[in-house]
Amino acid sequence: MVAEIISVLASFIIWGINLLGYAGVALMMAIESACIPLPSEIIMPFSGYLVFTGRFSLWGVSLAGAIGCVIGSVLAYWVGYYGGRPAAEKYGKYILITHHDLDIADNFFKKYGNTAVFFSRLIPVVRTFISLPAGIARMNFPKFVIYTFLGSFPFCYLLVYIGKKMGDNWNTLGVYFHKFDVIIGIVILVGMVWFVKRHLNIRGRDAINRVSTEDKK
Questions:
Q1: 58: in domain
Q2: Domain count of the fold of the chain
Q3: How far is CA 7 from CA 1, 81, 169, 190, in A?
């Protein structure tokens, strides 16, 4: 099932890039960076293959990919800023997100947002979704754009370079990257389980404390 989905996505990516050229690369990476899991490990290595064939230049296609990342990330950022933040404040309690959690996120992005955004752009899976929480936390927008580009360009360049070196075998990279994605996905899942368990425990303690206080009255 997963292999079939990846095959369909790969066909879409190849079709788009062949049709639109550099603009297709930028479009595909914009989609990938807008919280839509279109695999960059197919987009950029295939673009690297086209560098191998002489259709694209290494620097040109890397730049196109990085620009696409910025475009998609900006869209996700503003969704988080204007839609995600109010929704989190109003409905967050139903999914165990408190105002205290939002304050922690705000402080984190104020102190470490530049570093977080830069390095997140280098990590598969995480890079796809980092823009939304950055928007919800209302990270400084100009810095968000700058560090998104600075993190995206070397990521794109590396995948393009690998695709170029692999030549006709560029599509074998997807298998290895998919395994890496699975590992990261498991780590994220474990983190989510810890988050839910921690908040349920806090709610349980708060409920016990409220009952205890009422009994004393």
A1: yes
A2: 1
A3: 10, 34, 16, 28
Q: Is residue 178 part of a domain?
A: no
Residues 6+ positions from 14 with CB-CB distance below 8 Å: 46
Token representation of residue 101 = 């959690």
Q: Which amino acid is at 120?
A: S
For residue 130, the SS3 value is coil
Domain housing 16: 2-172
pTM over 0.90? The answer is no
Joined tokens for residue 72: 């998609």
DSSP codes, 180-197: HHHHHHHHHHHHHHHHHH
pLDDT digits (tens, 9 = 90+) for 65-111: 999 999 999 999 998 888 766 666 655 454 445 665 566 666 767 77
